[in-house]
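Lecture 7 notes: from sequence to structure.

We start with a single chain of 251 residues. Read the sequence below before looking at the structure.
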Amino acid sequence: MKLTLTAISILTALLLFSCRVKEEEPQEQSVQPPQQVQPPQQTSMGSNVHTVVVQEVIQATGYTYLNVKENDRVFWIAITKREMEVGDTFSFTGGLTMTNFESKDLQRTFETIYFVSNISGDKPSPSAVKQSGENPHRTKPAIDEKEISIEPVEGGISIGELFSNRDSYANKTVLIKGKVTKVNRAIMGSNWIHLQDGTSGSGKFDLTITTQDEVSVGDIVTFEGLIVLNKDFGAGYAYEVLMEKAKRKAE
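Now the structure, written as tokens:
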């Protein structure tokens, strides 16, 4: 009888131990892949194709900042540094959205800006031009001749006179009055302005000017500056005739 009771006690203990082990075994769980977490204040613009027109260009050390327009929406994007001009049209997909982004280079904070890399229909970057060996002038868009008629100021010359007799004005300071047709800001430390007055010489009618002064497209202005010939800055910036360090004169 005692042997039977002992056997029953041992059997009961084994059953209780087996139940406890099963209760402590971890239940099988489905493993979820880790979610990609974006850094603070960064979001994705998505994969839609955006076609934009450049409204303003600001060049910095490593990036070109563009104020662009898509339909009725105007916003800022940043691309790898390259030559761009107001009126250029291109498309891009995706982009990293940054809010309250501070550019130490420009000493400016952008409320919202998109850093974009997948661009089509734009001009090649300076490095791409150098590697391909192509003439950088071929990447520049054709400049339209505007219907303008502006007389030179007293003591000044016309753009046509400058181009027709460029050698006579080399390394001389001249006065030229014209209408601003394009503006590229903050390129190599200067604002680059295209000026026309309705005259032409040797087939040239558009004068490029570098200045620290601020102007807008459509302004009729008078600049005084030094004329230099065959100036090549590299990265596609080469000019047969250029007015440098120009100062805007009061009308």
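The radius of gyration is 33 Å. Keep this in mind for problem set 3.
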